[in-house]
């Protein structure tokens, strides 16, 4: 459910929604969600001073019943 929520949020703020990839796996600290976007959209997802990424993390943590980590991966590397 969380991966779908993250994908929905991200796809609605980027210019290339077909390039969005959201994958999840469990770790010792909780669930880890990795988001990949088109390199041209990385600035939109992170936002000024990381505000958009922080807001996404806040929303995901609010709808979750366990610890969740959301990372935006730079696809250029």
UniProtKB/TrEMBL annotation:
Ribosomal protein found in the keyword field: no
InterPro entries assigned: KH_dom-like_a/b, KH_sf_prok-type, KhpA
Compartments reported by the entry: Cytoplasm
PROSITE patterns, per database record: KH_TYPE_1 (PS50084)
Domain of life of the source: Bacteria
Keywords recorded for this protein, A-Z: Cytoplasm, RNA-binding
A matching Pfam family: KH_KhpA-B
Coiled coil: none
Keyword RNA-binding carried by entry: yes
CDD domains: KH-II_YlqC-like (cd22533)
Matches recorded under HAMAP family: KhpA
PANTHER family assigned to the protein according to its UniProt record, in alphabetical order: RNA-BINDING PROTEIN KHPA (PTHR34654:SF1), UPF0109 PROTEIN SCO5592 (PTHR34654)
UniProt function note: A probable RNA-binding protein.
Family (UniProt): Belongs to the KhpA RNA-binding protein family.
Name of protein: RNA-binding protein KhpA
Organism whose genome encodes this protein: Alloscardovia venturai
């Amino acid at each position: 459910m969380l991966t779908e929520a993250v994908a929905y949020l991200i796809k609605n703020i980027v210019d290339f929604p077909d390039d969005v990839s959201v994958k999840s796996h469990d770790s010792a600290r909780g669930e880890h969600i990795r988001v990949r976007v088109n390199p041209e959209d990385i600035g939109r997802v992170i936002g000024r001073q990381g505000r958009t990424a922080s807001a996404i993390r806040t929303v995901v943590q609010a709808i979750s019943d366990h610890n969740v980590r959301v990372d935006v991966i730079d696809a250029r590397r």
